[in-house]
Amino acid sequence: MISVLPGWKEIHQHTILPESYVELTYWITEPGAQELAVETNNGAVSYSDHEAILDTTDKDFKKYATLENNLWVLDGSCEILPDSEPYGDTGYVADAEYPMVTISFPSLRTQPIPGATIVWSETYGEYPTRVRISALNGAEIIASQEFNNNSVRSTFEMPVSNYDKFYIEIIDWINPDHRPRMERFYLGAVEVYTNSSLVSYSHTQNADLLSTSLPKNEIRFSLDNSSDIWNPDNPVANVRYLMDRQEVSVRYGYKLPSGVEWIKAGTFWINSWDTPSNGLEATFTARDLLEFMDVTYTGPKTGALYAIAEYALQESDLPKASDGSHRYFLDESLKNITTDFSEKEDIYTTAVILQMVANAGQCVIRLTRDGALRVERFDRQLTDYVIGQDVSYSHPERSMTKPPKSVAVNDGLWTESIAPTGEQITITNPVITSVENAKAVGSWAAATLSQRNVLKGSYRPDPRLDALDIISVESKYSNSFVAAITDITYSYNGAFRGEYTCREVEA
Amino acid sequence: MENGLHLITDRTQFDVDKVHNLAKKGWANMTEAERAEWSAGLKGAYNATDLNRVQSATQYLQRRLADLGYSVGLSSGKTWMLNDTPTLADLNNYLADIRTIRGVLTLLDTTPLAPSTMAGLNYQRANDIEQILLDVDRILTYMAATLVYSGEVYGGDLY
Description:
Largest sheet of chain B: none
Oligomer: heterodimer
Distance between the termini of chain B: 31 Å
Number of strands of chain B: 0
Number of strands of chain A: 31
Number of helices of chain B: 5
């Protein structure tokens, strides 16, 4: 569960909530191209962190006090430059009469992109009033345009393909005795959609406590298409740039007395869209990292589960985090369980291999809000989240699964007995090849399935809840069930509505 | 104006707001009068002229204190230029000099303390820095006016 300020939790105790927000940032670009880019410039101050303008991770930009005329405002907001490195996040700070930043690629980029998005200086609230952006193919300028600008965050529309370089020339800065600054450069257009521009939005998460199926973390959203900006027949439509696996990040916000507090909702990748020529809306679906794991697995079929899972993840060529780190975590316990399913000739995708490894390793697969994937032992820690009667639209419906009699793993490799009567549960997982492993999986499954209560309901959610979180749920008679969320859907239409399913667990 | 110190002790939130407003407006949209104000350096901002003025004042007061027999050591302050970026060490020395000057004499109850850091400097603390120097200068002037020289006072005189 994502952590929030006390004020966030406090507002959800009230009958009436303050204004809420959904902010969706859709990066229309060639996926993977930004990571190949390199920045250079014609002069920057010593404390300038200019190479990092291509880094898309969260940053804490420093507002240093300098003696540029009237830049050091006496409002208490400025820090003092340290005597030596590290200087922190400063972005590009020009030290040239005619500042120019160059973004280069090692090879020609052939996919069309709509232009570039630049964040100048949100820290100081400054920007260029005139800038020239040029795209090059080798030494040849293939597109060049001068733009007037009046915004700290600018998307420059300049459709281009077959480029390997961009020049950004700052012609005029809003205050000419201040150094031009640039905090971020994004290849392509970074479009931000908020409450007023999202026609509809929903966010669905589900997870399997026994990893017998793959989890899912998906959003569906619709945008206004009355201007035909997403119409496939429109020659200047954005739809030209739509590609699988373009990144979408979402955050949710509430207006607290101290200001709007935002929490990350998730990082997703576009996997489908519907942009009808006759419709007023364009609808998009984006999902989690498993979207990339539809690759056929060609790795080893013997050895530790950890190595097999790691091979599957690396073979999937998952997008890395902006700092270059992997977007996955594997539990160390997977190193202690081995398998040999080399006799199996079936073809598996890397996603299925990961799911089978998680099941054999008695782990869950958790899809995090940072867009990462974690294969880990289930954390049974009870959170402070309560679905109480005062936020429920109706009493949760309780059902009980059939009482399990036993869990049979792989056609009798091991059978874990639970009760004299009931349903026989079968787990078939080719990765489980030893009796020892089968026994551990059987015992794990038996313990989980013996908790038979399943609750479903709809409520006014606090959208910090994720699948696999352990919460308390109040029923009609105020019994407080401790349950793990297996399904949660948030829909947003000016306010959040939640639908959930959870299974009672021992915390 | 105090013996040429030209110290500024009356900055207000209005001055700070003015900086924000003009910065947001941008040079191209400023009137001629606003451009003139901006170019001269706004009161609600801390510029090279402010640092240099305060440093000059501390050096001046060092000389005055020396004239009265107080030996005070200060850092060798540099002359600040437009577009310089002072570092932590620079500004620690700057504040240390102010604290040194402040610490020589017994001052008024109303004399503010020197800020412990220049990080997060606001208009009140900027005023405090210069008020300290102003108070020291005033006290030195009183002291100089009430100095008794040898041969001026005789037994039974009222003084």
